From TrEMBL:
Keywords: Cytoplasm, Protein biosynthesis
Pfam families given in the database record: RRF (PF01765)
Protein known as: Ribosome-recycling factor
Cell compartment(s), UniProt: Cytoplasm
Organism of this sequence: Ideonella margarita
Main localization of the protein described in the UniProt heading: cytoplasm
The UniProt record lists the keyword Cytoplasm: yes
Gene name of the record: frr
Annotated function: Responsible for the release of ribosomes from messenger RNA at the termination of protein biosynthesis. May increase the efficiency of translation by recycling ribosomes from one round of translation to another.
Ribosome recycling factor domain ranges (all copies): 21-184
Protein family: Belongs to the RRF family.
Superkingdom per UniProt: Bacteria
Amino acid sequence: MTTAEIKKNAEAKMARSIESFKTELQKIRTGRAHPGILDHVQVEYYGSMVPISQVANVSLLDSRTISVQPWEKPMGAKIEKAIRESDLGLNPSSQGDLIRVPMPALTEERRKDLTKVVRNAGEDARIAVRNVRRDANELVKKLVKDKLATEDDERRSQDEVQKLTDRTIAEIDKLVQGKEAEILAV
């Protein structure tokens, strides 16, 4: 393995960390509705647990209401129950074969709690990126120790990995600020 391969590997892992963080941010409920909120809610479908999006059409009615249209009529009650029992604190209502999921307005206290959750998730993402940096630097040191790379290569590689880490952490910080602004917007 060369220093270029190590850098490329670290870059890929950092990109995956950011994607994971973005997915985590989507799960955090703001006052606004978006279909991604229901992505991790599972419903029983012929004996196995599947995401709601695989048994129903999930879309927006307006900025504060999600509509869920089951593809099969008997799934309506199961989907409604799954949403109600999820950790999202939502209260769906059934209107014929359409399930409406209104998003309740967030209280000031809840908004502050959610910003703390966002900051903690951001810190976890930063830690993951720093761990990738540490692993990459250790691999380069091992190459130098095994005399497969020079100390100049080691220094250059560490600088490149540090710049990559700084860019990735700046992107995470930007995502955290954006989500906080979204949560605090009334």
